[in-house]
Amino acid sequence: MGGHAVLVEFGATIDKRIHDRVVKLDAALKAAPFQGFVEAVPAYASILVCFDPLVADHRTTEAAIAERLAAEVPKTIGAMREVEVCYDPDLAPDLAAVAEASGLSPEDVISAHLSGDYSVFMYGFAPGYAYLAGVPKAIQQPRKPAPIRGIAAGSVLIAGPQCLVSTLTMPTGWWIIGRSPTKILDAASNDRPFLFDVGDAVRFRRISRAEFDARCLA
Question: Which of 54, 63, 103, 146 is the most buried (most CB within 10 A)?
Answer without folding.
Answer: 63
